[in-house]
């Protein structure tokens, strides 16, 4: 049994930000920190005071986390980036919004006295005596203190205040992991109500000392405890509220905290087996559970439910069968071919998730070079005459302004080149497409052919495939390459327009160049010849794509199963130190790493394009080591140089690490290893929410069955899938109720500690 916490984060936009550049504007981006650990950095939006990001993330983190902070920064090319402001949401604040926090939050000033981090190790004792008792405070060590000096460290010392007296430890130079092992004693008067305050400071020779955080203790409560020892989180001096209105602008956020108690795998087996049986039986199943789940799932949570179900069936090897069942259900209620898979049904949402989970690397191989070329060229492209800006394109070789017609023709040539390259790459990619994706498209193609067999619908099976491949996969990735990890940054206005026009052209090809799509935007006519050629290319590609036999599918899947799943790949810089003393030099060597669930390997040359964010690498490493029984609880963040560790100054090379291993804050990615128990728990939670509706539906179905029995006579009783589902839900309820008390577990914290 385990507690799981996750944060769904959407950073929408900012408004009324202050100008940080001499141009009267800013180049804002956001950094997200969980308990002072940076985990997310958004793209930079250039030259604006009202940036729009629209970036979404999901973070898995320990239930013991304290806060999540959003820092809005201004990027500077020549100097250190400026801090504009921040929004800090504590765990308690997020827990007060069961359906998630959504709205505008005022940015507050980043006060150095608030930017504290780390923990301090203390031992508190009440010493008995014949007369007055004494309070002993042992300051042992600290870890992960905020670096306040230019050298990336601090010179920390501790002040202990009680009953008007102040005592200080010695100063530990150049360390964020100091060890003091010093003890102080104070006279303790019975009935005294004053608190004990322990403050950490960074010593500075010239300027004033920097505040590193404090812990305040309730001394009267210590009389009963007599002794307490542990690690205590350092708190800010005077925290500000994001509700206070200031002049630093606002940030629109959507943040949803979810806590789940995940039971042992055996508890979920009846639910998983019941759902798998329904999928295997298909439309002939007696209970039609999948159809009932689809009918009673709201639009707001349909994407989440679709993703959870898809991942569950992927883990059971039934993703293709699950999607095939959804295809049949939607085809059964569709009468007009032109409306097929156009709504946000469970089939459409599940297929979207499936393509991202199973086909993201395939997408990168096709689109990566084309997207890179668009970003590098930065050409002005516009086909709509009403939007052409001649001044933006400069002069021709004859030193005269170009006409709108010339601009449109040049733009059409650029788009024809990009579209042609994309279609050629797609045509060559049949063998590169994952076998499970090809097999799923084969099922879709066959089902649509069976439903619309007439000659007038000969294009409908192709359009059904392209409605997912082009309209819901390729086109969104072209328009927003940052969100599909194709680029590190958002495109500027000029590049965004080029990508939008290219995506429109891909949509027209995907729609098989129907008269309706052609009439919608007549100014796309310059691309008509390329679109017509693209339709023929795409139909030929789909014909080859769905031409995969069962044996070939099994062979490809078996070959893939022998390979360890790839978690992440991309370049990293290896730091190399040479020499000793003042002649010591350092250099960086670029190597391309590949991380699977079994090994971390590297080579001198890249095998594919990938992102190179440090926090993504840390997240990937944590995911593959989550079940490592030999994972260390602590480590040294520094290096052993000369005769001591650079982080904590300990002289024993085998000394226990001075910082704790942070192994549980991870970013969710589409290629994450499947967590079967968590997906089953999330599905159970969703079914629990619709249990009352399902019971009402069960009564209706049972009444109809009894009426049919009276008319037709008794026969063999059909297997009641809904009744079995209700029994499974009851068993899971009992399992949860017998588990430890609901609510996230708190890390060990002294009850004497006062929260500031």
Key terms for this structure?
756 residues; 5-stranded antiparallel β-sheet; single chain; alpha+beta; 25 strands; Immunoglobulin-like
Q: What does this entry look like structurally?
A:
Keywords: GTPase activation, Metal-binding, Repeat, Zinc, Zinc-finger. There is one protein chain. The protein has 756 residues and is of the alpha+beta class. The chain has five domains: 2-108 and 242-260, Sandwich (Immunoglobulin-like), CATH 2.60.40.150; 119-233, C2 domain (Immunoglobulin-like, Sandwich); 263-333 and 671-706 and 720-735, no CATH class; 350-391 and 404-557, GTPase Activation - p120gap, domain 1 (GTPase Activation - p120GAP, domain 1), CATH 1.10.506; 564-575 and 589-623, no CATH class. It contains 18 helices and 25 strands. Strands 7-16-1-4-24 form a five-stranded antiparallel β-sheet. It has a five-stranded antiparallel β-sheet with strand order 11-10-13-14-25, with no helix packed on it. A hairpin with a 2-residue loop joins strand 2 (28-34) and strand 3 (37-41). Helix 5 packs across helix 16 and helix 8 (404-427) packs parallel to helix 13. Mean pLDDT is 82; it is low at 392-396, 559-564, 580-586, 606-612, 713-718 and 741-751.
